[in-house]
Amino acid sequence: MELQEIQKILLGKFPDDILSFDESSDILTLTVRKSRILDLIQYLKDDLGYLFLTDLCGIHYPDQELQLGVVYHLHNLLKNTRIRVKTFTSVEAPEIDSLTGIFSAANWMERETYDFFGVIFSNHPNLIRILNVEYLDYYPLRKEYPLEDQTRTDKDDRFFGR
Amino acid sequence: MEHLGKEHILIRPEDYDKNFSTLNLGPTHPATHGIFQNILTMNGETIVDAEQTIGYIHRAFEKLAERRAFYQITTLTDRMNYCSSPINNIGWQMTVEKLLGVETSKRIDYMRIIIMELARISDHLICNSVIGVDSGAMTGFIYLFQEREKIYEIYEEICGARLTTNLGRIGGFERDLSPLAIKKIREFIAHLPKVIRQFEKLLLRNRIFMDRTINVGGISAERALNYGFTGPCLRAAGVDYDVRVMNHYSSYNDFDLTIPVGTNGDTYDRFCVRQEEIWQSIKLVKNALENLPEGSYHMDVPEFYLPPKEEVYSKMESLIWHFKIVMGEVDVPVGEVYHSVEGGNGELGFYLVSDGGRTPFRLHFRRPCFIYYQAFPEMIKGSFLSDAILTMSSMNVIAGELDA
Amino acid sequence: MTQYTKVDPPEGYSAPGFFATTLDRVVGLARKNSIWPLPFATSCCGIEFMATMGANYDLARFGSERLSFSPRQADLLMVMGTIAKKMGPIVHQVYEQMAEPRWVLAVGACASSGGIFDTYSVLQGIDKVVPVDVYVPGCPPRPEQIIDGFMKIQELVGNESLRRRYSPEYRALLEKYGIR
Q: What is the pTM of this model?
């Protein structure tokens, strides 16, 4: 099966750094140590044919030790297979290498992840907030922050069930 | 000069000539359809560089989705690409069905195909008529908007709303296609080709239009793939990637679908690809309508599909299910899933991480025009301001989808 | 034969050879049938506005044939769609650039009160930054509702006193919003 082959090849090339493999969800998912993410993605693009970066997003698990994660979805257009790569980092040192050298599409997607979660991508050409206002001083999509604007006066939380 | 990841910066600071001027194509502008800002550095009339600012309509959909139950998120997805909201709705419902492992029947699939293709026609009608308006041809816009009114009437008959449809349910639809809806769709499909041909006579081989759009805002296939392009913009550059064919969903593989592909990736190619897709969609709707199989219009998903009101008031178990669904005490499987559909602009993806709770743990929307709008400075370098406007409108940048 | 409806003349005293009324009413009549709107279309309500401008629900028959995209030449600011906090100062700036007399129509739930987006990044109604005259609820409002809102603006315009913009209450209102 194609997935088993890819799993074998990747485990052979990156023996210590792939932390887990998962096939229970719809596509092959692997978690990798953040120091090797650039090499892994480069290898996937050059040797295994995953030429298309479909998606890049962040995620915050407050209960884990490495709380902030970045999830990459890649797509091999010729063989029509997808792969999901995850990497995690801690809140205190949230640096991950940027993929803008490999995929230009990662530029704004990484800015969005920085804007929402505070993951700092090293070697990113222009890592500033993209969707929120510049003077926002926290990272809104982390779980500890509320959805609503706490300074609003016209909506009474009691009536909204909050 | 190209070093790692800096392709988007087109001039080095030391090359900056004192004669360059800065023009603010500000957030509010008649020709940008939506609010996003471009600060252009211009050498006379030619554009040298562009710096983009978006986020003027950031409504925090992803944070909002963490507080809404699964069936409430359909209303959020409406408002992303609001020109073709049924595609977003049905895409979301298919994502949840993928998480739950629900297979939909053929009738539901064909109904979904009909509605999604009508939405695609509606989106392409806006985009093409607006390319016409931006190059000065207002007439096509007025003609095609009448057709959109007919599509709105069809939506009203199916779900009650015109624009933000909130259509369908997890597991199918809330009601069957009524005979009036089928009659309206048939009449619409019979009448539309004449109007599209009229529109094409106005613009497609029009000397002025062709001069304004050929070789304007072009991008090569390699750069387009690197930038994550999908949809008509990628197909205009020459790559035949269509999610309906590649990862077929909702029984699209029962129909034969030709993917129109351009050569240069310029504005004229994008216009022509969208025109051809309108013809393909008309064919799909006609075939799906003629071959619509019999069956139920919803699958049996008791945890998510509200039971009919007559049963809620008469049967005990329907009452209990209704209570459980609305109060959020259903068991949602834990897991993560990524599903994508072919939206009006390209691959619209939904990455859903569920932790078993009433609301998603994390929901991320892969929005096509957010990803391909990054390439805009590269596409307009060296062209005139009017070309930049046409390139922007041919990319069909919809602010709701850009900022989410 | 086509049926034409004429606009009724304002109240006044008429006799052979002359018609006497107040200046307010004449000016109001002229203004209300020739409003030049500025469509500040942000999101989904903007598409419903495009449908309103189209041939089916024609807004041009109310006198607003010419849409002005420059605030200097516009009478009515129609804010259609969600206004985020990033966009708030820009709405304020556009309102400041409009010349008196000016009116504001908030179309849609998002412009009236934030709509379904009760989030950290959305302004909960544009009346936090500009004074609003008429609110049109709906998500999105049907074209008939937008036209209804527009007709209420016409009523306001037609019945406005000529001295209103110089009155202390109006000045206090603008002071409250920080508009010079």
A: 0.92
